[in-house]
Write a structure and sequence with these properties.
Largest sheet of chain A: 4 strands, parallel
Number of helices of chain A: 10
Strand order of the largest sheet of chain A: 1-8-2-7
Distance between the termini of chain A: 27 Å
Shape of chain A: globular
CATH class of chain A: Alpha Beta
Largest interface: A-B, 26 and 26 residues
Strand content of chain A: 15-25%
Number of strands of chain A: 10
CATH architecture of chain A: Alpha-Beta Complex
Radius of gyration of chain A: 16 Å
Oligomer: homodimer
Number of domains of chain A: 1
CATH topology of chain A: putative 2-phosphosulfolactate phosphatase
Helix content of chain A: 25-40%
CATH superfamily of chain A: ComB-like
Order of helices and strands of chain A: EEHEHEEHEHEHEHHHHHEE
Structural class of chain A: alpha/beta
Chain lengths: 239, 239
């Protein structure tokens, strides 16, 4: 029997070049949306509603009695309650609550994948790497690893996570894709020096000035919130 | 004095995210358009007219008494005279002649760069690596390394060439660009095993069945046609 096909998409701008129909799409936004999503669900959030605007975040927050959260340029957005840091969502705070999260890059890609006919959409980050890989192997369907990028520009942190997934699942898939090959090689090259390597990335420099070093190190730590966020009926729930 | 800025663009689909205004844009289409362009000019072609359709190729070929050339799927296109292989253009054949070349990916990107306000457009490939680097350093302007990709999908051969350029010119430029960082790391990783590494790329598998192994090896050989193709008044000439 032929194996399902896996591709890595390096920017939302390139998503249309790939066939999402009946595929599992993994939304990757390592710094920090999908790391925060995994962490909040792992710590007992009831579910997480990803939205693409502040207005929607406030409206849905009111309607669901959820916690509204989102950042722009490293600061909590005016009118919202919390930010986009995984450290803000320990079990003592988030357990049993609904989180309404607005992010720029990740939420956009998630809605694009749904519109493109994805059968299942999950979110991936280093904190839930194994859960993502286990799910992809068990589903045995075509896979798109979708990097959220930064305003559509290629970034390395999302690529490194895609490479980590390729490294762990490749024997179960047919992979003829230079993006996946590159992503895995970059991951292999840096899997043992991620903390120092991320200090050279453009996104690090963007966030470092807000004192987020510990956050970013957490975001490249494997399996510390090892749960599967699955998109269902408008929200991310434990899959 | 601040240094000019260098970016690597991994697909034509991403070009709009970058500022081409007043920049030097390097068109990269390693397999095989820009390798063929360097070779034909190095071997004495009068100039090369890149066109984006077969119809234009035939019309301009007739008008200029030039040689018409182009391939689709590894075969010379019906109605044209020659293909897209650097081996077809030795000095004994091409010296003093005009070449009208139609290619899919490279020509499209070249016209996009011109429309985006590029000040100078040149073409780059391993056979003319040093000439490209010398020009970029001497110009001292912002640089876009534009990978032609394959039908807008990321490819590694163009990325490796971008990485080779970054490796050689980086001290002259400000580079805060994950694409450039990745490209240079991939080049550093494979600069000594390019012949074997390219055998794993998707484009290799596409062209290998047409018996083009020698061609592809030539296309990753450094400085064997070390000349600068510069776009001027509708044609590529020695810059």
């Amino acid at each position: 029997m032929s194996k399902p096909v896996l591709h890595t998409v390096l920017s939302p701008k390139l998503l249309k070049l790939y066939d999402c129909n009946n595929a599992v799409v993994v939304i990757i936004d390592v710094f920090r949306a999908t790391s925060t999503i995994a962490t909040a669900l792992f710590n007992g959030a009831k579910h997480i509603i990803p939205v693409d605007s502040v207005e929607k975040c406030i409206a849905i927050g009111t309607q669901t009695k959820g916690i509204t959260a989102g950042e722009r340029d490293g600061k909590v957005i005016e009118g919202l309650q919390y930010g986009n840091s995984p450290a803000e969502y320990p079990e003592s705070f988030i357990k049993g609550k609904i989180l309404v999260l607005t992010t720029t890059n990740g939420t956009k890609l998630l809605h694009m994948a749904l519109n493109a006919g994805a059968e299942k959409v999950i979110t991936g980050s280093f904190p839930n790497l194994s859960a993502v890989c286990d799910f992809l192997i068990a589903e045995n369907k075509n896979v798109i690893l979708g990097c959220s990028a930064w305003k559509d520009k290629f970034n390395l942190e999302d690529t490194l996570f895609a490479g980590a997934v390729v490294n762990k699942v490749k024997e179960h898939f047919t992979i003829h894709c230079d993006s996946s090959l590159m992503a895995e090689e970059m991951y292999n090259l840096h899997q043992h020096d991620l903390f120092s390597f991320i200090r050279g990335l453009t996104h690090w420099h963007r966030l470092e000035k807000f004192g987020l070093e510990k956050d970013l190190e957490y975001c490249v730590t494997t399996d510390v919130a090892n749960i599967l966020p699955l998109y269902k009926n408008g929200a991310l729930v434990v899959g």
